[in-house]
């Protein structure tokens, strides 16, 4: 009991602790002994040129492509060897660079299914009643991601930006504690980017998030701290202002954005 309490307290301080996390693909070292600590409630940006290892880092954290060395703790618990669904069950969520939505269903249906825990294999065709708690949660999520006006529209009829907003809504279902956003601003118009900044800034403060984002106007406005990656390793951590003004970072990243 005392141990559980101690772990709980330790867990409350950090959403995520990575120690020496590596991932190889054959001879390629895609992630090289990454140490990273994200505090509970913290918002962290991950910057780096193409191929720096950002998405591989997310895959290691979620278990989609498990790490080949090192240790990952999620709110104090060692999740290094857990399957992705076990990490989801503990409150870890992610969005992908490519859409993972049911395109033939409405916005509200997608959110409803997410609230009912489809990802946990509890799919059900039961038609929702108006007072269904999951339907109410789905409506709240549609509101949180600025999609009230198109709640009944089919996903296939949404703009690209609205689909990305819906993905964020899906990630918000079922009490997330940490969300990993993989380039949420990719392909968005300037107006949609402003909407995205508002949505991310308005997320409840107890939800930690880590965001991979090439658009610095988005990334640096919504995060507390930034980690810059280079060649699969952590190059530097800092505040948004420190990172923006850092000559080394400018050399490897800001100067040649995708080089
Ligand atoms: N499944 C895989 N099999 C083989 N190599 C992979 C795999 N996933 C990633 N890599 C390699 O790992 C390295 C890091 O790729 P990663 O996608 O993590 O970079 P990134 O920083 O997310 O880049 P981008 O900004 O282009 O998304 C690259 O050299 C990539 O080719």
From TrEMBL:
Record-given protein name: ABC transporter ATP-binding protein
PROSITE patterns reported for this sequence: ABC_TRANSPORTER_2
GO molecular function, one term: ATP binding
Signal peptide: none
InterPro entries per the UniProt record, alphabetical: AAA+_ATPase, ABC_AA/LPS_Transport, ABC_transporter-like_ATP-bd, BCA_ABC_TP_C, P-loop_NTPase
Gene3D superfamilies on file: P-loop containing nucleotide triphosphate hydrolases
Pfam families: ABC_tran (PF00005), BCA_ABC_TP_C (PF12399)
UniProt keyword list: ATP-binding, Nucleotide-binding, Transport
Residues annotated as domain ABC transporter: 16-256
């Amino acid at each position: 009991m005392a141990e559980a309490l101690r772990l709980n307290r330790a867990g409350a301080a950090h959403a995520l602790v990575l120690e020496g996390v590596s991932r190889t693909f054959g001879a390629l070292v895609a992630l090289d002994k990454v140490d990273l600590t994200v505090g509970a409630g913290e918002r962290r940006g991950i910057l780096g040129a193409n191929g720096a290892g950002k998405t591989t880092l997310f895959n290691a954290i979620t278990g989609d492509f498990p790490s080949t060395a090192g240790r990952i703790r999620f709110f104090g618990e060692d999740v290094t060897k857990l399957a992705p669904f076990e990490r989801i069950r503990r409150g870890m969520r992610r969005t992908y660079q490519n859409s993972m939505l049911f395109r033939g269903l409405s916005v509200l249906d997608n959110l409803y299914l997410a609230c009912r825990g489809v990802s946990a294999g509890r799919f059900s065709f039961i038609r929702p009643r108006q007072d269904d708690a999951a339907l109410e949660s789905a409506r709240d999520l549609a509101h949180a991601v600025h999609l009230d006006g198109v709640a009944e529209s089919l996903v296939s009829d949404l703009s690209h930006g609205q689909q990305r907003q819906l993905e964020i809504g899906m990630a918000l279902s079922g009490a997330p504690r940490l969300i990993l956003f993989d380039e949420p601003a990719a392909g968005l118009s300037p107006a949609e980017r402003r909407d995205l900044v508002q949505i991310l800034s308005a997320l409840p403060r107890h939800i930690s998030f880590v965001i991979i984002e090439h658009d610095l106007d988005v990334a640096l406005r919504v995060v507390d701290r930034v980690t810059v990656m280079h060649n699969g390793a952590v190059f530097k951590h800092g505040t948004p202002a420190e990172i923006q003004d850092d000559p080394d970072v400018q050399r490897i990243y800001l100067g040649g954005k995708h080089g």
